[in-house]
From TrEMBL:
<dbReference type="Pfam" id="PF01494">
    <property type="entry name" value="FAD_binding_3"/>
</dbReference>
<feature type="domain" description="FAD-binding">
    <location>
        <begin position="5"/>
        <end position="341"/>
    </location>
</feature>
<dbReference type="InterPro" id="IPR036188">
    <property type="entry name" value="FAD/NAD-bd_sf"/>
</dbReference>
<keyword id="KW-0274">FAD</keyword>
<keyword id="KW-0285">Flavoprotein</keyword>
<protein>
    <submittedName>
        <fullName>4-hydroxybenzoate 3-monooxygenase</fullName>
    </submittedName>
</protein>
<dbReference type="InterPro" id="IPR050641">
    <property type="entry name" value="RIFMO-like"/>
</dbReference>
<dbReference type="InterPro" id="IPR002938">
    <property type="entry name" value="FAD-bd"/>
</dbReference>
Amino acid sequence: MTVIRTRVAIVGAGPAGLLLSHLLADAGIESVIVDSRTREQIETTIRAGILEQGTVDLLVASGASTRVLTDGNRHDGIELRFAGEGHRIDFPSLTGRSVWLYPQHEVLKDLVATRLAAGQDLRFGVRVDAVDDAASDRPRVIGVDADGQRVEIEAEFVVGADGSRSVVRQTLGGSAAGSFREYPFAWFGILCEAPPSSEELIYSNSDAGFALISQRSSTVQRMYFQCDPEADPDALSEAQIWDELQARVPGTTLHEGPIFQRDVLRFRSFVAGELRRGRVALIGDAAHTVPPTGAKGMNLAVADVVLLDIALRALLLSGDEGPIDAFAETAARRIWKAQHFSWWMTSMLHRTPDASDFDRRRQLGELRSIIDSDAGRTYLAEAYTGWPFETRLG
Ligand code: DHB
């Protein structure tokens, strides 16, 4: 059996776990990260592509990724399309902020490279089975490494950054404990080789259902359309996929091209019942899941990291427990704002299978209330570009 001793044991080498180790290292706090996946799996999983202003500022200022500025693209607005017309929401004039289109797996490549270059103890292929002694001040992570050897990590604090199927969450009142809702639709997502069909992202509410026209680069595009959660991603031909997408953005002719990746993304809103117990805390998807509309998932994970970094510095450098005691409540405020925003964008833009004529017209009235009002557009822009991060805790 391998026994590792460290200050902070981080389960999960996604954006939350890696960024936390990076910020802690800057304060001289050593950590060990384990993940059940391989480095290749982590770096190639396709996720969302929008980074909030604050996320970008933090990645750049902390030295975690500067590539976002050279390889990413700043977006100063989005288009909301409904009833056959497009309406631009201009972020800088409403909030002084923007967002960046830079895919999550690129953020991950940068973070993994930065951490490994700094000598981070980062172990792939380690399956975590349990967290023991979670109530003590020496919690232990128990797992099995890539060679089948038992591994034990003894730490002063354990962080569950292990995604929506978090094992660490099971030590905090059970893996399912929390608040959640399901949705009667999902997204059919594609990556294709084609030039962009629009300068900015289009979020379209149409009679045929929702579509999102996003981008990856000048030659690769990401697009989604609302589908049944049970849909089989391989059941449609490329021509059928283009027909579905095209029908949902009337007024725009999409640039079509070979589709080289397709997936069905199920929706769920979830917040864990406990975000921290004793010396164990949850961050990122382990703590909460949002539906993808509005791209809050990774940005919310980064906001958790900012708070936990403040709390762990206070706890581990000065023995001050005030900030960690305030962590869950403070994190929950932003989490529930983001839950609301993600639910709201989703419900305002999608067609619910059993929607009545009233429901449909009310939804269009809601969209019109947003675009016709400075306050409405400003709320959307503030939430989309991201509320400022907390700088203090407790
Ligand atoms: C993307 C995903 C989203 O959920 C979103 O709101 C915007 C963009 C994307 O993958 O590009």
